[in-house]
Predict the 3D structure of the following.
Amino acid sequence: MLRDVLIQKGLSNRESEVAELVTKGMSNKEVANQLFVTEKTVKFHLTNIYKKMNVKSRAQLIVWCLPHIGFVEKEEAVAAQVAAAATAPTNQGTIPAGSAPIAGVSGFRSGSGNLGI
């Protein structure tokens, strides 16, 4: 998980939260609202993050974090696909045979001339 990697790099729990949200594309204002702090506090945390991570900008922070996020997202996507496959109905894609009516389809009268216009 990205947060664990950031903590190993020396960031505090809160700094790791800020870095994670910034990496997800949130603005300082959005991060502040999410964490119930002021934008000034978010900027303070970002300054500390940049120093500890030895990066000079938000963009460099995001680039540094991307490989760690990609791994987590891939892992979650595989888990979601496995769960979806387990709950999917097995008769998906079958077509009724013969002249049996299809449920939910109302009768169609050809040649009525009324197109509902």
User: Anything to note?
Assistant: The helical segments are 2-8, 13-23, 28-35, 39-53, 58-87.
